[in-house]
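tool_call: predict_structure(chain=1)
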Amino acid sequence: MLFKEAVKTMHNHQQQQQQLGIVDSLLMQMFGRPKGILGRLGGFILARTKRDFTQWVIHLLEVQPDDKVIEVGFGPGVAIQILADAVSTGYVAGVDYSEEMVEQARVRNAKAIEAGLVQLQYGSVEALPFADDTFDKALAINSMQVWSDAIAGLREMRRVMKVGGKIALGFTPYSGQPSTGLTEMLTAAGFTESRLVETDRGFCVLAIK
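tool_result:
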């Protein structure tokens, strides 16, 4: 009897693990590295739910009209849209690992792209297609937690930033990213003056190259 109960318990546990694995996979397709129909749906959800938080992070970044700004993991392009309005004489670039998000963001920012103010590309944070010392500001929102190598990604972002440039990493509560250890990671990647800013909508880590 005890053996049967043990087998039943183990079977139930395996089923629960399989179900969690399926849920994790679905969430990754929707929000982590969006693709397909689920990615498209995830993009629409993100565009509607994180605009206020995105504006807060950009406010902390202190973007100026003539700044050159790069966003890694731009998703549906909400931050790109806000940045394009802020940099009247500057430039906004974005790199995202999801082809679905690149497509959505290009549609959302079509006029700015046509005007030469915005450039969006498919790619990885570990190999950014830009020269050294290009950008004044850099940001990533709910993105770093899915990078294959966070330190390598941060070092690559630092490479394309100008000396004195400012970086912002923002995370909402559902990102799953803990706030502890992030300032140390930025320091390890070569940034200085790392600091954490928290709000009821999430948190942001800021640093200087």
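agent: Strands lie at 68-72, 91-96, 118-122, 135-141, 161-171, 192-199, 202-208. Proceeding to next step.
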